[in-house]
Structures are given as C-alpha cells and as structure tokens.
Fold each of these.
Amino acid sequence: MQLKRISVLTLYLLSLFCSSGIAADTDSTKSPTANTAPSSTFFVGADLSLLQYIQDHSIEFRQNDSVIDPLQIFHDNGCNIVRLRLFVAPDNTAGQVNTLPYTIKLAKRVKQANMAFMLDLHYSDKWADPAHQQIPAKWQSLSPDNLTDEIAKYTTSVLAAFDHENCYPQIVAVGNEITNGMLWPAAGPLKSDKDWDFFASILNIALKAVRDYPASSTTRTMIHIDCGGDKDRSLWFFNNLKKRNVDFDLIGLSYYPFWHGTLSSLQTNMTSLADTFHKDIMIVETAYNCRGPKDTTLEFPETLQGQKDFLTALIKIVRSAPNNSGRGVIYWAPEWIAGNKWNDTNWNYSLESRALFENDTTPRPALKALTPNPSARVPD
C-alpha cells in the first residue's frame, strides 16, 4: 500500500506542482489528517467555496461583537462538513476563483476546524449546472479515448495534491448538477443512448480514479443532480446510470424550493430514490431568501424567521428518509454578503438575501438551524 502511494505521488505531483505553483512540503514531522468520518454520520454544513476570496478582500466575520474565523462560527453552531468546488482552469471572473491551490488552502482550514471536507469536481473551467457543462478549454481537442485518459489522470493528480497537503476529502462528487451530462459536447447533452453510454463511461473512469487512490479507503463517492423535488426526472437519471453499471456511494441532490418544488415533493423523491436504489442521499445545495421580492407560493415567508424555519424543516425531512438513508444537508454560499469590497461588479448581488450573514458579517438566525437536530415548526 505504501509503495502504491509513493508511485502515485511520484507520477502526478511533480507535473502538478510545476503547473500550479504549489511548492512541495518536505516537513516530515507533520501528522496526516484523519479521514475517518463514518458512513452513519449525519452531515450538516455549508458550501463555502468563496470564503477565502471574500476574506482576501479584507472582510472580517463577527459573532458576539468579536472578529472570529467564520469556519469556527460554523463549527460552533453545529456544522460538521464544508463543501468546496474545484474548477480546472478558471479565469477568476464571476466568482470563478476556485483553482487547485486556492481550494487546497481552504480545505486545510476546514480540516484545522475539525470539519469534514467534501470535494465538488466540476470538470469545467466555468460554473457547471444542467444548462452549462462546458468542457475545459485545454481538453476540447482531445479524442474520446484521450479525454477518458485525461479524466483519470486529472482526477488522480487532484487527489494526490490534497493528500500531499494532508487535507484529503471524505466525500468526492464527480461532477456538479450533471442531470444532462457533462463535458459538453463530448458527454452531453443527453439525447441518445450513445450519449448516455459515453457519459457513463466517463463517470466510471472518474469514480474508479477516486476509489483506486490509496487514501480513499474511507472516502465516499457521489453523483450530484439538481432536481431535488422531481421524482420522475431523478428516477430517469439514476435508472440510466444503473443500466450502465455506474458504481457510486451517495446520491447528491440540489433543492432550492423556488425552483424545485415543495418539501413534500422532495420527501416523495427521496423516498422513491431510497427504495429504488438503496443508496444514502444528501442535499448538497440549498438556500432560502430572507428578504426581497416575496414569493407567496413558498411554504415559508421570505423573512429571517422564515429562512430559519425552512432550513429546520428541510433537515428534519432529510433525517426522516427511509432506512436512515438521509445523510445530510449543505447550505450553498452562506458567506455571500453584499458589498463592493469583494464583489466589485455586483455579480449576482441578489444572492446576499440567501446568505446566513448580514451585510455587517454577523450571523443571521438561520445559522442556528444548521445543526443535526434543529427545533422549529414544520409546515402542515
């Protein structure tokens, strides 16, 4: 096992460090970061992928009139996991700042705060979602065979870099909201069996790279789609993966009630997925507005208390999934405060209404609900 580990690091880290600017650490006295979160853990946490960028613009977060590391704020309020995205070669515009060195720096802070780390591999230079899955620029000219080789090499090299820096992830999501494929136009959009077949082969290669990496003995793999409240589309997607023998551990869902339906529809979908595929399920993206234009069709008012009550109800519903299959809830971009100090183009300014901090960087009430056992009302 040790020989395999040295071989992997030798093959991949040298080229990785040369291209990314990460310096090799020769300190032999540091101890490895534990990677032992059991599969029975119920995770609650946040996607804090922009946190380092915001703090690099001299933003300080506060709690009880004191400046505190926001990771400590989340930990103190009951969070036990942080999700971080990774782009291949982002251009640092429109929030696309998540390079490998940047993400490693933030992942090390997560580990130091005694929280688990979920890695969200976008396999794109840009934001990836059901409407956007652009293949990285440097992979666009690759043949199908060379692309699959590159996926395996890239995945392994990324994992080796996190391993080398003692911040290996407990969960690795292969793709982000890949309901309509990924790496367009090579592996999507999904319009034919041929599209599905190549998409599945890409997934299996990436998943195998995660499983085969020596430090992955307790790391769980995830496939993430967007349609948390859509039972039919979720079944369509995962049945197609099952038909093609795609092997993974966790189902990840995005659930934004203003796009994905009621909590009841989410509960129905989770029950269906759990009964059909017998896999654990996590809500890996969610959020709720606390002010702004009011959507009267939602189950909770878009107020500070409504934001807290929504999150409380969501966590309770996920925990109630059949056979203890509901394994966690992750809130997306709670650090996205308003202000031109870090967001000088006011890109997606409206997201500040979904944040879990006020614009003065003090916590909103909903942060208290981001805990494994919140207490508040659930809608009738």
Amino acid sequence: MPKKSATLSKQRFKHTSPETTDLVIPAIEESVSVTRRVRETGKVKITKSARYEDEVIEATEMHEEIEVKRFAKNQVLDKPATAREEGNVTIIPVMEEVAIVTKKWVLREEIHLIRHVEKSQKPQTVTLRKERVNVEKTRLK
C-alpha cells in the first residue's frame, strides 16, 4: 500500500503598498512512495504427453533407371562439342586433344660468307717486251 506524507511550510510574501503588513500563507505538499513485494497466490502444474497414430496416405513413388550406351565417333572438330539433350537422351561428348604432325620447312640457321679483299704493293721481277721505233727523215737534195 502506498505511503503518504505531507509537509507544511510557511512562506512570507511582501506587498509593495505601504499600508499592508506581512502576510503568511501556508503551502502544503504531498508525496507518494510505491513499493512492491512478491506474494504467492497459487500454484500451476503443466504436463505434456505425445500420442502416435498410424495414418494411411496416398504417395507417388518414382523409380528411374539410366541405360548407358557408348558410340565411337573419331571425328575431327574445329571446336569442342557441348553436351546436349535429344528427347529423353542426354548426349555427353568425350573430347580428346590430339597433336597432329605436319611437315613444314623451318629455317634453322643461315651461313654468311664474307669476303675481305686485302691490297698490298710488293716488288716483283717480270719480263716486259718493249719495242722502239726510230724514224729518220732525210732530205733530198
């Protein structure tokens, strides 16, 4: 239950007129304080149980079987083939990258022959043929 308390205080007010005297007016203030306490008022008991029953339901059961067939192709393709479906058949290509040997001319190296000409002057003895012609002119008298 809340507790109540009251406080009485006196305050003086002065009037500005000269013929009045001091007047005392009482002021009252109340305050409330609330507290709680736990009190048992009764008890509760809870029990839980489970029960199992069989029930018949309609369910669809499906069974699927896959047959695997392999077909040799040995075809040369420009690009890799992709998996595809044709009706209820899924076709998965098995690719192999194969090196193909071709014959081509490959320039491995070049051999460059460089001529160096060297000139020098050396004295040598050689036989030269020289002819001289002497012409004499005479005057007729």
Amino acid sequence: MQRLRRAADLGRDHELYRPARLFVNFFQPSFKPLAKQRDGARVRKTYSAPGTPHQRLAADARTPDAVRHHVQELYAALDPVALLRDIRDLQERLAALADTQPIGHPAVALQPIDRFLASLRTAWKDGAMRPTDRPLVKAKRGRRRPDPLIQATPDLLKWFEAEPWRTGSELLSRLQMEYPGAYPNKLLRTLQRRLKSWRSEQANALLFAPSEKMPPGPRPSPHPASSSTQARSKINEATDRTREHQYMRQYGVSP
C-alpha cells in the first residue's frame, strides 16, 4: 500500500477489509487441491469442485451446528453487489490519500445501487476498475550496443537514394566489395531493418509532402476525395516503378 499523507488516516484502510473479507469468504469460489499422483515425469493433480470458504465450512462435518446456523444467517443478509460497490468506494478514498493523485473513473464514483449494477454490463470495456490501479508506462528500449553500420551509413544511404529497389543482400554484397572483411554476413538482418525504416520515411515523404505554394487570394475548396486519390496514385506509381526494376533485374535488362 502506498504511503499515506497523515498517520491518522492509517486506520481508514481497515474499513476496506470488512467488505473484502465478506465478499471473498461468501461469494468468491476457488479450487482446492485434493490429490497429486506422479506418473514418471507427468504429475496428475486432482482438484475439488469450485466453492467458497462459506460452503466448505458448512459442508464440513466437524463444524458445530451453532456456527453453521450463524454463518448461514450472515450469508442470507449479504448482497454481493453492495459489497463490491463498498469495496470500490473505499479503494477510491484510500487512493485519494496517496501522494499521487489517482486517475478518476466514472464507474467507481459514489452512485446509487441501480446505476452501479447497470454499469457492470460495460465495465469490462474500460479495463482495470480498481481506483488504486496505475497504468504502467513502459519505456522504449534504446540501442544497447554500438551501431555496426555507423561508418557505412552515408554510403548505404547514398546507394539507397540512387536505387531504392535494391535489397538488403545486394547492398551488403556491395558494401563487402567496397570494404573487404569489415562487414560480415551476420549484419544482413540489421541492414534489412535499416532499409525498412528508410523506405517507411520515403513513403511518408512521398504521401505527405507539402503542397506547392499558392498565390495569395481566395483558394478554391478542395474536393473531399482529392487527397486520398492523389495518395493512391502516388502509391501506384511507386509500385509500378518497383515492379519495373524487379523485371529488368530478373531478365538482365539494363535500365
């Protein structure tokens, strides 16, 4: 549990255990292992039918009748929906005491029982419902080892801009001819990822290049489908050029 702002508020977390204890003991079934049998390297485990601690206590022959009767009366007076609402309401109060302000959620706010019950149908769409839940922001992993192609990047980029249809194997072969013994074959996958990144940047520049400057004055309103039509035409032109170069390379025709 996170550090709270005032020591006097530490007793407030005990209020959460009462509805949570009742909900787990009376309305949350679980499995219990009954036997385990080993057959060579395989282990076969046998579990009991799912049941709540209240059901196991009532079914046990060692339980006194007075205890069984008292637990049954307590179970009849409980409402699982009301307990779940109380748990979330107390979690919201505890989260408000933490140093970091919790992310507000409309479903955990104090509301009538009928609205809370109706919200359970779509609660799964909103992800985690606990007010104490915090999204984990995973930092993007950067490069851990030095770039093995840092010295050859200018040459590779120049060759790629001149002949963008060249594959990673062809560029690596040319690089090995230019610098014998410096770039082994295991760098092929690294070079292919580099080419994929360059082709993505080139496609973005081709599709989203800034338009030509228009003279000052009123501008005609563009057709709503003009931008998408231009983008498709550019993609088709790039695809045709790539297929043409592949055909010439396959049949030995010089461009």
Amino acid sequence: IRLRVLPPGLPGKTTLLATSGGSRIRVWLDPSRNDEVALPKTWNAGETVPSILYVEGIAPSAAMRDIKMTLLYDENPDGQSSPLLKCEDHIVLTVVNVRIEAIAFNYDTSSAITDAINLRENYQCGISAPEFIRGIKNMASAYVRYSRPSILCKFFVQPNEINTIRIKAKSADFNGVLGDIAEKSIVLVDGVSCEGEDNPSTTDFDESQYAFLSIDGTIPGKICKSEESWDWIVTEIDGLLIEGANFVVDRTTNHQVYVILDTPKAPWNQISGDTQNPWCSALDFVIIECDTVGGSVYSSIIEALVEKFYSISYNSISQCLIADSVFSFSEFMDTIEANCLDSAYGLDTAASILGIDLQAVMRTSFLGYNLHCFDKFGSYVYDCCRALRYAIIGWRYDDYINYGHPGPVSVESELNYVIE
C-alpha cells in the first residue's frame, strides 16, 4: 500500500490502523518481511511516514472486502477533541486463499497419450487417480515420450464468493520434464472448481470438481525420472487483473514422474488395475540401477541392460521361475545368480517396461545344451547369460543360430510368463 501525507512538515500525528479484519493481516516495511509494522502505528510530527508498506495475508477473508485499513491524521498531537484539523482515508482489502487440493495425472485409464499411463507402486500395491491429494498422498506418474498431456486439478478458493480465477503454474524444478502449466480460467461454485463431469467408471474421485489444464509443451524424447514442483500463480480474480507478474498462491512439490519410450509391451499391460501394469519399483530398477537415464535409441538401451545383467553369476537352476507360468521379476531385480531363462526373461521384462518390444525365446538343442534362452529384437539377438564367454549384443539372428549349432530337431518357442 502507498501512503501519502501532504503537505510535508505538518505538526500533527499520523496513525495507521486496521479498523476491521486486523487479525487476518500483517504489515511490513519491506517485501522480504524483515521488519514488521505493528498496528496501530503512529508517526509523530517530524517522523517520516513510509511511502510504501507491504501487507501480508495470514488468514483468508470470510467475505469480500472484510478488511478495512484507515490512515488518520490528527493535527492535535494529544488527540483531544479540538477545532484543529482531522482527516482520514480508508482502503478495503480481501485476503484470497487459493489451494490446489488434488491433481489427477492418470485420469483416463484407457489412454496413454492424453494423460499418464496406468502404473503401480509394485506388484502388491496399485496407484489410482488423483495421485496427489493435499496432506494425504503424493504418488508417481509415468508418461510416454513426445506426448502432450493434460492434468486434472481440483482448486479450493476463499472467500467462496469468488466466481472465477485465472491461474497458471511455473515449473520450480530445473530438471522437471512436465514444465509449465498453461494459463486457464477456472469457474468456481462455493469456492470449489467445477468444470468437468463425473465419470462413473472412476470410483475414486468426482471429476466434476476438477478442471483440465494443459502441459505447456511436450514430454521429452528420452528416458528419465524427475521430481516436479510447481509455483501456482493467479493472474486474475473475477475479471480483476492482479498487479505484478508473480502472485504465487501455492506450491506443490515432489511429484515423481517417469518418462518411457513407448507404451509398455508384454509381459506388461495397460489393463486398468492389473498387476501387470508397470511398477515404480521396476522403473527405478531399469532406469536408475541399470543406468538407462537419457536413453532414446532402442539398441543402445538394450545394450546397457545386457551389460548390466551379464554381470549376474550363472546358476544352472532358475532363481526366478516360481511356477510353470509365473516369473518373479521382483526376485530378478535382487538376484545375484541366474540361469539362461532368468537372464533372457529378465532382459525381456526390463526392456518391455520402457516400451521396447523385445521377445525372450527358448531354443532346444542349442549351444551344446538341451535348451538355451536368449532375446530377439527384430532380426537381431541379445544374450546376457553368464554361461557364455561374452555377452551377445546385436548379432544378426541367422549368424547367432549358426553360432549355436542347433541340433537337427532344434525347436524355438516364445517365453510368456505372468510376472510378480
């Protein structure tokens, strides 16, 4: 607020006070809030009245313009009733509170392009939208590269007389992958956003209390994991433009986001709520532990995985096949020993969660064994079994088969297991 008492050098005293709503504000000499001005504040004759003070809202208004501040000049220094000059001026204020109550990243479980993909924490625990609920949960999301997604946000605004706000968000994370959120006008009813329609197929939240907001850009074209933070900025309230470019009303943080190359391939799937939806624990293993961060070329990523898994010691007995049709990728992520089936299907599962269509196969009478497992990617072969003298990286299929000296009745079949 700007203060002026003219002409200068007046003999009386000047007082600033809050005549209503004073408990909702604090007043400061500087925008960094280093020097508070306790109200009421009086400046006697000869003292300098500051030209600018900064008002901080500390509690939301119960109604519009329910805070009144008065600047009073009294020419009688003692304040007694007298014929000497008295004058005053008033302003009314509203402390607005805007909160982001919830964010849904994967609001449409049938799409992997317009929003996040279906995701789980691990085999046992699923993730459902809204992934972020203030004070309750903040769960991860994952996106396919180059997509241009939207998110659903639920806003809470006080006082609830406000009908519309315009809001945007600036990325507060230099390494964030989602970036800024485009500015949009939000319609409010009783202080809650109300743009959408409820989708009866989603039982966890009512979309009618949410608003669609677009990511202001494109998901990067490489594998990564980031932690998103946003500063939410209001630019307009009920048609009134907000002075200043950075009226930050809220910050949401620690939104874990993964970026993969394409929709996950089998054995992973995108059936809503299925245990074969990609797991965060598996993405952490494949992206962080296997060092595929920044990868964008399929062959280079497969090579990195082969080199990682070739370091696992060989054991002729499978450590991860726990039933005829079940492969424990949970066990594989921690295993220190593996046979050729473990290595091949572990590689298949790791590449497939990133969207690479690798296929583990079993070949009878091959490489001098009764059977041997390896991976195919198009017309190329990858083999990370430690029983071999060296890892096989990108060999042509025909060359690899000749190298393996298959027996006259050698048969090749695809490996397909449920993972847990």
